[in-house]
Each structure stands twice: as C-alpha cells, then as structure tokens.
Design a protein that fits this description.
The structure holds two protein chains of two kinds. By secondary structure, chain A is α/β, with parallel strands linked by helices. Chain A has helices at 49-56, 80-85, 103-107, 122-135, 151-164, 181-196, 208-214, 237-245, 299-306, 329-335, 344-348, 355-359, 376-389, 406-418, 436-451, 463-469, 492-500, and strands at 11-20, 23-33, 38-42, 67-70, 73-75, 88-91, 169-173, 200-204, 217-222, 225-231, 263-272, 276-284, 288-292, 314-319, 322-324, 337-340, 424-428, 455-459, 472-477, 480-485. Chain A has three domains: 11-245, P-loop containing nucleotide triphosphate hydrolases (Rossmann fold); 261-336 and 422-501, P-loop containing nucleotide triphosphate hydrolases (Rossmann fold, 3-Layer(aba) Sandwich), CATH 3.40.50.300; 349-421, no CATH class. Chain A contains 17 helices and 20 strands. In chain A, helix 4 (122-135) crosses helix 5 (151-164) and helix 14 packs parallel to helix 15 (436-451). Chain B has a two-stranded antiparallel ribbon. In chain B, helix 4 (68-85) packs across helix 5, helix 8 crosses helix 9 and helix 8 (171-189) packs antiparallel against helix 11. The chains are: A alpha/beta, B mainly alpha.
Chain lengths: 501, 330
C-alpha cells in the first residue's frame, strides 16, 4: 500500500440506512475504505451489500442522517454523475461491455459519449486505451473484437475502462466467479498493481479464499447491519463464514467406509479427444464420490459423457453391471443417470416458468393420464412430495422459479432430477452462486440421498466442499485422474496443496 | 489483408463468392461482362441499395424495420401530391420533402418502440399494415401517371455507345453514392454512429454508460425512414409513375441482402461495404440466371439457396485460416 497516512479515506460513510417499502435493507451502517486499499465487502445474499454499493454510486439515496465523505469532501447527496466525477467506478458482474466492438473502443468508450455528434478520433482513442492498459501492466491486442477474448481478459478491459474514467475507487462485483485459478491469479496481480498506484479496490466475492488473500480489511454485513470490520491478517475462512452467517458450521469430515458396498457405476479407460484420457473409477451404491480439480481439468466434460450428452471414443461405462452406450442424454435418463448442471441459471431451470412446471419437466410422461394429456393432480402430488422431501421454501408451486433464492432454486433442480428416480446422480458444482448458509442445507440433502442408496458423483472446484462431504475424493488434472484421497486420512491443507499445486 | 479479414469476416467471404460468381458468369454468359449489362445492373439496383443502407443503421442499433418499403410508397404519394399541389416544384424541393416525410414515418416507429417498449419487429409489422392500409384507403388504390415533367425525365450522368447498345449511368446511381457515403460517415466516423453500434450490441451496457436510448432509436429509425423516402422518390423517377402497391414485398428482399452482407439480426454488426456486396450478390445471381435462360420462377429459389448457404457457412473463419501463416513469419 502506498503512503496514505495524511490522505483522507476514499470513502468514509456513517449512519447509512435504507428502507424499501418498510423493509430495512441497511440499518445505521458505516463503511470506510482508505485510498489505495484493497477492501472486501462480505455477507450473504440479501445482507445489504448491493444496496450499500448502489448508495455509494448514487443509484439509491440513503435515508436522512447519513454522513457521506468521498476523498475528504462532505457531500449532501450523491448522483451517478457525481460519483463518476469523484472517481467511483463499478465493474458489474456482467461487465457491460460491447462484444462486437474492438478492445480499444471498449476501453476508451467514454470518449465516444455525448449527444452531440463528433468525429471519432481513432488515434486518440487508441492512445487512451494503450495508456490505461499500461497502468495495469497488461498488453492486449487493441484491434481484437472483444467477443473473441476470454472472460478474464474482458474483465481487464472493464478495469481499464474504469481507469480511463480516472477511477480512484473501483467496486468489483464477483469478479472471479467464472475464472480459472490462473486467471484469478492474474486478476489479483492487476488488483495489486492498481492498489500500488493509489486506486482503492472493493471486492464483493463469495469465494472467501481469494478475499482473504487479496484484501487488507474486510467489512462484514448481516441482515443490513454491520457485524464488524476486521483485518484479514489471521482471519480464517471458517471464522469469516461464521461472521457472515452468524452460525457455526460443522466442518467435520463426513466420509465413511464404502469399499464393501456394491458397485453402481464403473468407468474403465474412458477417453475423449481433447477433453480427458484413460479415466477409470468405480462409484458405489450409497457413496458420495468427490471429483475435484481446477477449471479446465475435464471434470464437466467427463460428466457430459456419463450423461450421454457427448460420446467417448474409447473405454467402457458399466451401470449396475451392464455396459452402457448412451446415444443421447435421453438414454442416460432412461437408464437411471441424472445430471445437475453447473450453469443452473441457463441450463437447469426455465426461470420464468413456475416451480411446479420446472420440477416435473423431466418426468412429463409419468404424470400424463390415459389420453396422453397432463394430469394436474398427478403433477401437484409429485411437486408436493418433493417440496416436502427437500424442504424447499416456496410461496406457491405456481410462482416463477426466478422468485426463489439460489439455494432453493438448486433444490428445485434436484427435485426435477430426483423425480426421474435415478440410480446415479451427478452434481456439477452444486453450490455455485449459493450462499454459505444455504450450502450446508444442500449437502445435508446430498448425504440423505446417499444414505437412501443413491450413488452420487459430486463435482466441485472448492476442495473444502468435497473434503467435508465426500466419502472418497478423485483429483483430476489435465484430463486425467491423478490421485485418489480418503478425507479421513488426508487433511484439507494436504488436499488443497495437491489440487492447487 | 488479415486485419481486413478479421474486422470484416462476412464481407471478405462475400467478396470471394461474388468474385467467383462474376468469373463463372463471364465465361458462361458472354453478355454478362459487358458495359451495357453492368451499368444496367447498377442503375436497376440503386434504389435497393439506398434502402439497404437505411435498414443497415436500424439493424446495427439492434432493431428491425419491416415498414420501410411501404413507407416509401407513402412518401412517393405524399411528395408527388404535394409537388402537383404547389404546381411542379423541382429536384431540391422534391428531395427535401421526401427526406422530411421519410424521417417523419421513421420517427413514428421510433416513438412507438421507445414509448411503449415494444420490440421493433412487432411495431414495424403494425406500421407496415397501418401505412399500407391508410395509403390504399385514401388513394382508393389509384395510381398517379402524370408526374411533374422534371421528375419523369431520365437524367443521364454518363453515356457511351458500344457495339451492342448504349451504356449509361443515371441520376439514382449518384444519389445512391451520396447515401452510401453519408451512411458510412455516420456509422464509422461519428461518435453517434459508434453509440449506435454499442447500443445494438449491449443495450443495458449502453444505458449504464450514459447513452441516450431515445436518441439512438430516433436516429436509427429516422435514418432508415429518410433513406426509404429518398429511395421512394427515386423509384417514382425511374418508373415515371406512382403505384401505391408497387413496393410492397421489397422489404424482405432488401433485408435478405443486408443480412447476407454481414449485418447481424440482434445488433452491433454490419457495414456499408457488406450492404453493397449483399445487394450485388443477389443482383448478379438473378442477372446471371436471366442471361443463362433460366425461368424467372427459379430466381427466388436460387436466391434463397444462396442466402442459406452464406448464413450456414458463416462459422468458417477466413482470418483463422490465414493465422498459421502469420505465426510462421513471426
């Protein structure tokens, strides 16, 4: 951090409250970020993080009584324009970039703003873009179409764009949600460069490991109130989770001995060109088998083959002792394989449709009456059964899925697949976008299902998740299974060292 | 060369296809590559190309316009009635009126789209019907055959006698050139044009960046309306008459040509060069079939096949094919 002893803080807010229709989203919250500081804003969904950001950036006005200082200047009100002029920038999760335009145009986009038409000065535009990238110590092809860049580089473009606007404080909303480990490291390096040049960065992230690594202090909110501001030095993930949720979580390893149970799924020498090679393992009845590794290790590709969405070139898959050749995922479903995909929002659920319709989507044939028409009664019974079984918190079965929280949406996806009465359930990163508190609930369901005899393949890039919840853990890297671990004999740090090495 | 391919992949591919088509036709049909045939092709497609660049701006801004050809009919009628009413007028007045009426119709579309937040295809299908219905109702479908003298007299900008007849370039070609240049200037060289691309590409991102959304819709549809009006007047000039239902259906031909030229339905992509190539490819293909003695009924089918082929091969990336060579040099 640069010498900021005399500099006023970038942000010093106090007594910030906000009420929406009688609901108190924020209650008397203070927030302070020093110039050049890397700060983390942590809390579960609905804790008031986004409301606070929107107040600081002028989107919402706080209730009276709030004191707002930006860079040492007391402000009576903040509008989006004032916030921008003061150097406050937000990089939203969706980045708000233009895929069809070049990198240079995206970075220096503000030079093209204004209602009065002017000539585009492409030379000045490139110079600005180049200068912004230089400040980040990054080189990118300025003429490349943005859409051809990987997400990680688009993020750099978004940051560079904020710098062109002379940003002195940048909010980053879940910036690493879709990045690989290497890309995350590169992003964190950029954040350090920014900080060294006096630009403050406020991280909003669910991934606690990187939050602790990068920031110097963390502000924790819960239910619209400040829990506290803590130095990250000496803070552990477990402690931070506790602060965010107000609950203590049992991090005890759940693994149990499964080697005597009958084999449900056997995979031998499975290969698919460019994705994975020579993958062999067994999954037993009632077992939770963890599969971890970095993004790009081939985990999801493997799941796609097991679910019949793509076909392996070599190797065999035996389900309940019988060799399977799935031509499509319809075959896989019929044979008793269920797959809960990683991208729940886009692939797993039809957001605007009702909870009930989503839940029965995979079993429409079972709820049709004699004439081949859907039977509302059968549908209601089935939905009621699973809502009860999985403890899904819903208003009405007829409400749109999009009205549910992440954790409850995940339960609806589970219900949809469990209704097919599968023998093997593949869960691909089931907790992405789900709060720390709600994760525990999902894993409780996973353990219950296993106890009832379901064979579960649990894929996750969060090593701690598989360590706690799986009976055995497979480590995949570069398209191969490179290790098998027993959580009862391997500690979490050992496993993490192996995976993140 | 590679930079061009990377910036204009669809256009580059179209250029290759067009070149092959021209080469093939000049061998198969001797009349094809003659000055008389080429100049008549250009004269006959000037109006389409004016429409095309107008529609291009709407497509770039993420919209679509089905109503412009019918709008052109409305403008034709209104302008000619106004000119007759004022006792004749002249080119300056005629063009100015055509632009003004055209912009007016475009702004109606823009206001409906922005004011009621309805997607453009629904709005312009409605206005397509409304414009056409009103026109047929008030005109009772009657055509105007007695245009002001200056409007119906062909203007030759250049002519040359060849062994097989006269080759010439007429006024609509010059007007088309001006429209092309103006559109290119708007979308490539002005900040407003780049905002149109950004708006079409990511409307929410554009809104957050502070772009005036209403202004974008107004400019895009206003520009399209203006081009439609100019094209309508040129059409009346060429055919020496105003027939209320003469232009209906042309919108889909133009739309197909513009999309063929690389403009993306959904916004953010498209170029004037692409429009020229798209219109040219369809025109050359039809002309070639005609010269080869193929039944006119087969034209539409062949055009459909060309468009399908072009769209379905749009994943072939010429820039990527050339990439390895470049790596060798480095």
């Amino acid at each position: 951090m640069p010498d900021v002893t005399d500099a006023p803080p970038a942000i010093r807010f106090s007594h910030v409250s906000k009420v929406f229709g009688g609901v108190k989203a924020l209650r008397d919250v203070p927030f302070e970020v020093g110039q050049g500081e890397v700060h983390c804003l942590a809390g579960e969904n609905g804790c008031g993080k986004s409301t606070l950001i929107k107040i600081i950036t002028g989107v919402y006005q706080p209730e009276t009584g709030a004191e707002m200082d930006l860079f040492g200047e007391r402000l009576s009100a903040i509008t989006p324009t004032i916030a921008r002029q003061k150097g406050i920038a937000v990089i939203w999760q969706d980045l708000a970039l233009f895929a069809e335009m070049t990198v240079a145009e995206n970075i220096a986009f503000e030079t093209m703003l204004g209602n009065r038409p002017r000539f585009v000065d492409y030379a000045a535009l490139r110079a600005k873009a180049e200068a912004a990238l230089a400040r980040l110590d990054v080189t990118l092809d300025l003429d490349a179409r943005l859409g051809t860049l990987p997400i990680a580089q688009r993020q750099v473009v978004a940051i560079a764009r904020a710098l062109v606007g002379e940003a002195r404080l940048i909010f980053m909303d879940e910036p690493t949600a879709s990045l690989t480990q290497a890309e995350t490291d590169a992003l964190l390096a950029v954040v350090r460069t920014l900080s060294a040049r006096g630009v403050a960065v406020v991280f909003v992230s669910h991934r606690l490991a990187e939050v602790l690594e990068i920031s110097s202090r963390v502000t924790v909110l819960r239910d619209g109130r400040l829990v506290g501001v803590y130095p990250t030095e000496g803070m552990t993930q477990a402690r931070l989770t506790e602060l965010m949720t107000g609950k203590t979580f049992d991090h005890q390893v759940m693994a149990r001995e499964t080697s005597a149970d009958p084999v449900m799924l056997e995979v031998a020498g499975l290969s698919r060109k460019g994705e994975f090679r020579d993958v062999s393992f067994v999954l037993r009845r009632g077992e939770v088998l963890g599969l971890t590794g970095l993004i790009g290790a081939g985990r999801t590709e493997l799941a796609h083959v097991l679910f019949g969405m793509t076909q392996a070139e070599e190797g065999r898959v035996l389900l309940d002792g019988r060799e399977m050749r799935f031509a499509s995922n319809r075959d896989a479903v019929a044979a008793g394989v269920a797959y809960v995909s990683e991208d729940r929002l886009a692939l797993g659920l039809i957001q605007p449709q009702s909870i009930s319709d989503n839940a029965v989507l995979s079993v429409l044939r079972r709820i049709t009456g004699r004439a081949g028409l859907l039977s509302p009664k059968a549908q209601d019974d089935l939905v009621a059964h699973w809502v009860r079984e999985l403890a899904v918190k819903i208003g009405q079965p007829g409400d749109a899925v999009s009205t549910l929280s992440g954790g409850n949406q995940q339960r609806v996806v589970l219900a949809k697949w469990l209704a097919t009465e599968p023998k093997v359930l593949i869960l691909d990163c089931p907790t992405v976008g789900v709060d720390v508190g709600a994760r525990a609930g999902i894993f409780r369901i996973v353990r219950d299902l296993a106890a009832k005899g379901l064979a579960i393949l649990l894929i996750s890039d969060e090593v701690s998740e598989v360590h706690v919840n799986a009976d055995r853990v497979l480590h995949m890297a570069g398209g191969r299974i490179v290790g098998e671990y027993d959580p009862r004999q391997t500690t979490l740090p050992e496993l993490e060292a192996a995976v993140y090495a | 060369m590679r930079d061009f391919l990377r910036a204009y992949p669809a256009e580059a591919k179209l250029l290759v296809v067009l070149a092959l088509l021209v080469a093939g036709l000049s061998v198969a049909a001797p009349e094809f590559l003659t000055l008389v045939n080429i100049t008549s092709l250009i004269n006959n497609n000037a109006v389409n190309l004016i429409w095309a660049v107008g529609l291009l701006v709407v497509l770039i801004a993420g919209g679509i316009d089905i109503s412009f050809a019918v709008g052109a009919s409305v403008v034709q009628y209104l302008v000619v009635m106004a000119l007759i009413g004022m006792g004749g007028g002249g080119w300056a007045v005629g063009i100015a009126l055509a632009m003004a009426f055209g912009i007016g119709l475009g702004l109606i579309n823009a206001a409906l789209i922005h004011g009621f937040r309805i997607i453009s295809i629904v709005v312009t299908i409605s206005t397509f019907n409304a414009f056409f219905g009103l026109l047929m109702f008030f005109t009772s479908g009657k055509s105007i055959y007695s245009l002001p003298d200056w409007l119906s007299r062909p203007i030759y900008l250049w002519e040359l006698q060849t062994e097989i007849g006269w080759a010439d370039i007429r006024l609509p070609v010059a007007v088309m050139a001006v429209c092309l240049l103006a559109t290119w200037f708007l979308i490539r060289r002005t900040t407003t044009g780049r905002q149109l691309y950004a708006f079409g590409d990511n409307p929410e991102g554009a809104r957050r960046a502070g772009i005036n959304i209403w202004l974008m819709q107004a400019i895009a549809f206003g520009w399209c309306g203006m081009m439609a009006g100019i094209a309508g007047l040129m059409q009346a000039h060429v055919t020496k008459e105003v027939v209320p239902n003469a232009l209906i259906g042309r919108e889909l031909d133009v739309l197909a040509a513009v999309v063929l030229g690389g403009a993306r339905l959904g916004g953010g992509r498209g170029s004037v060069l692409g429009c020229v190539l798209g219109v040219a490819l369809v025109a050359v293909a039809q002309n070639g079939l005609n010269l080869l003695g193929v039944s006119p009924y087969a034209f539409k089918m062949v055009v459909g096949i060309i468009i399908l082929a072009a769209i379905s091969t749009s994943n072939i990336d010429l820039a990527a094919l050339l990439a390895p060579k470049r790596r060798d040099r480095e």
